[in-house]
């Protein structure tokens, strides 16, 4: 047996690496096991960061081609250098993953390189070495969900990982799944010139979102050129010399049709990743979807083994994983670490963006909660007009009796940044009146949030 630790975290994604850093800050001796060549997990290597780098670049490309002229800026001969765009994305990823390596050194977190396997409670094996530890944290994340009949080769039929690396812009990209990842990466390739068709099983895209927002979002994306095949399922994919032929059937059953694509992006969701971890050997229980079962303190059924992030229940989001990492590290030293699952913002980084926090109208109705709703369109916001970004609205939902904010749903420019003020308001138990009476700088997009809060009481000023 080699070195021993207070905590060994398995997986260096946003859940694992943040947990390791926080535990080290609190004085524990910490190691983090990662089998990738770089730290940062899915998020930094093949998720949040590279996708946002490409969204940024492709947005600049589209703006230069189609929006600048409206501002009186005429640019001739705009051309795409895709290999430079991909190289830049690689540089952004490189800087971020190196940053985590620096933070590990700064906080004296030991990186154990290789695949971690739990061989017994309190024992983790990495690269043929056994390490003992008082606590084990499983933070092994997730990977993309497979689909029967659609075999991924990461060239013609890709997951999000392959979609971040396409060597040329596909003529026709078919995205299977109308969720966040499919729509973000679909946006990237549409802006760069691909025709994009999204096949979605349900009757609407982004199905967990507030219905009104997802309907309007679909309209906006359609205006941008997206094609949607809703209530449809892909049942087979055949590779041909020209591309891929998909068999698409109505979700409810019926006649199949063929859909030809140059590239297919499979984006029907993600599943917990626990391969090779040794969970069966030590008897760690999983649920019906393969997620590690935990209680409210991230404890598994085996004493001394905990789990956080995408590998457990809850939204598969980097900031949710990070907050769980912090809360668990604090609990391990006897502090009261806590995550408020009622206030976890969720964002789609298309343009316009979509952001939400708290409950949707459908959720409030389902639990019989009486509520008031206030809405304000970006069309009536001076800053949005100056930007030329007037699509969308802010909607605030508040308790009918107490006026406490219960949810906020935004489709619009910089929605992902705007939602933070409502998340803070909700953490402090604010009423819509509190938000409405807070002085908001003019002219800002945030004024649309204030106006939506005023609208909850029927007194929006600028509409
Ligand atoms: C294309 C894409 C875009 C996304 N965009 C966003 C976004 O904008 N915002 C957002 O909040 N979320 C986004 N996500 C989701 C986000 O990436 C995840 O929620 C987040 O990474 C989960 O963090 P985690 O620490 O639980 O796991 P992960 O980030 O998946 O990290 C787990 C790590 O564990 C390692 N590992 C697994 N098993 C072992 C083992 N046995 N031994 C050693 N190492 C192991 C893996 O190699 C991996 O590096 C995106 C995801 C994708 C795919």
Automatic annotation (TrEMBL):
Cysteine pairings via disulfide bonds: 43-48
FAD/NAD(P)-binding domain span: 5-325
Binding site for FAD: 52, 116, 140-142, 310, 316-319
Cofactor(s) this protein requires: FAD
Example GO biological process: 2-oxoglutarate metabolic process
The protein's Enzyme Commission number: 1.8.1.4
Gene Ontology cellular component annotations, sorted alphabetically: cytoplasm
Cofactor note: Binds 1 FAD per subunit.
GO molecular function: dihydrolipoyl dehydrogenase (NADH) activity; flavin adenine dinucleotide binding
Residue sites binding NAD(+) per the record: 177-184, 200, 269
InterPro entries given in the database record: Class-I_Pyr_Nuc-Dis_Oxidored (IPR050151), FAD/NAD-bd_sf (IPR036188), FAD/NAD-binding_dom (IPR023753), FAD/NAD-linked_Rdtase_dimer_sf (IPR016156), Lipoamide_DH (IPR006258), Pyr_nuc-diS_OxRdtase (IPR001100), Pyr_nucl-diS_OxRdtase_dimer (IPR004099), Pyr_OxRdtase_I_AS (IPR012999)
Swiss-Prot/TrEMBL keywords: Disulfide bond, FAD, Flavoprotein, NAD, Nucleotide-binding, Oxidoreductase, Redox-active center
UniProt catalytic activity: N(6)-[(R)-dihydrolipoyl]-L-lysyl-[protein] + NAD(+) = N(6)-[(R)-lipoyl]-L-lysyl-[protein] + NADH + H(+)
The keyword Oxidoreductase is annotated on this UniProt entry: yes
Domain Pyridine nucleotide-disulphide oxidoreductase dimerisation: from-to ranges: 344-453
Highest taxon listed in the record's lineage: Bacteria
Catalytic-site annotation from UniProt: 442 (proton acceptor)
Record Gene3D superfamilies: 3.30.390.30, FAD/NAD(P)-binding domain (3.50.50.60)
Family per record: Belongs to the class-I pyridine nucleotide-disulfide oxidoreductase family.
UniProt miscellaneous comment: The active site is a redox-active disulfide bond.
Name of the protein described by the UniProt record: Dihydrolipoyl dehydrogenase
The organism's taxonomic lineage, starting at the top: Bacteria, Pseudomonadati, Pseudomonadota, Alphaproteobacteria, Acetobacterales
């Amino acid at each position: 047996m080699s070195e021993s630790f207070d905590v060994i975290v398995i997986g260096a994604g946003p859940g694992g690496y943040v947990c390791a850093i926080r535990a080290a800050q609190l004085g524990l001796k910490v190691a983090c096991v990662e089998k990738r060549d770089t730290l940062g997990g899915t998020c930094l290597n093949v998720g949040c960061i590279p996708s946002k780098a490409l969204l940024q670049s492709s947005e600049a490309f589209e703006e230069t081609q189609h929006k600048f002229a409206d501002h009186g800026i005429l640019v001739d001969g705009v051309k795409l250098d895709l290999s430079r765009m991909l190289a830049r994305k690689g540089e952004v990823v490189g800087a971020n993953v190196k940053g985590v390596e620096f933070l590990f050194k700064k906080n004296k977190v030991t990186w154990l390189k290789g695949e971690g396997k739990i061989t017994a409670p309190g024992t983790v094996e990495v690269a043929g070495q056994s390490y003992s530890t008082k606590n084990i944290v499983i933070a092994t994340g997730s990977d993309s969900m497979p689909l029967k009949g659609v075999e991924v080769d990461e060239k013609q039929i890709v997951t999000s990982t392959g979609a971040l690396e396409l060597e040329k812009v596909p003529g026709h990209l078919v995205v299977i799944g109308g969720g966040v990842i499919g729509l973000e990466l679909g946006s990237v390739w549409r802006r760069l010139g691909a025709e994009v068709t999204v096949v979605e099983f349900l009757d609407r895209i982004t199905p967990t979102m507030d219905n009104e927002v997802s309907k309007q979002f679909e309209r906006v994306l359609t205006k941008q050129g997206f094609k949607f095949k809703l209530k449809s399922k892909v049942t087979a994919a055949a590779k041909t010399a020209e591309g891929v032929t998909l068999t698409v059937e109505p979700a409810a059953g019926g006649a199949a049709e063929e859909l030809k694509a140059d590239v297919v992006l499979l984006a029907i969701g993600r599943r917990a990743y626990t391969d090779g971890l040794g969970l069966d050997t030590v008897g760690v229980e999983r649920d019906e979807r393969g997620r590690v079962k935990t209680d409210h303190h991230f404890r598994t059924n085996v004493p001394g083994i905990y789990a956080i992030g995408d590998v457990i229940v809850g939204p598969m989001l980097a900031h949710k994983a990070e907050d769980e990492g912090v809360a668990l590290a604090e609990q391990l030293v006897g502090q009261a670490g806590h995550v408020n699952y009622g206030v976890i913002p969720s964002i789609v980084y298309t343009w316009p963006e979509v952001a939400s926090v708290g409950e949707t109208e459908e959720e409030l109705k389902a639990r019989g909660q009486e509520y008031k709703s206030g809405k304000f369109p970006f069309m009536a916001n001076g800053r949005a007009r100056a930007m030329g970004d007037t699509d969308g609205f802010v909607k605030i939902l508040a308790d009918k009796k107490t006026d406490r904010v219960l949810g906020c749903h935004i489709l619009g420019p910089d929605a992902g940044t705007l939602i933070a003020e409502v998340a803070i308001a909700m953490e402090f138990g604010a009423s819509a009146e509190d938000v409405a009476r807070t002085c908001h700088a003019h002219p800002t997009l945030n004024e649309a949030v204030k106006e939506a809060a005023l609208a909850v009481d029927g007194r929006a000023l600028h509409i």
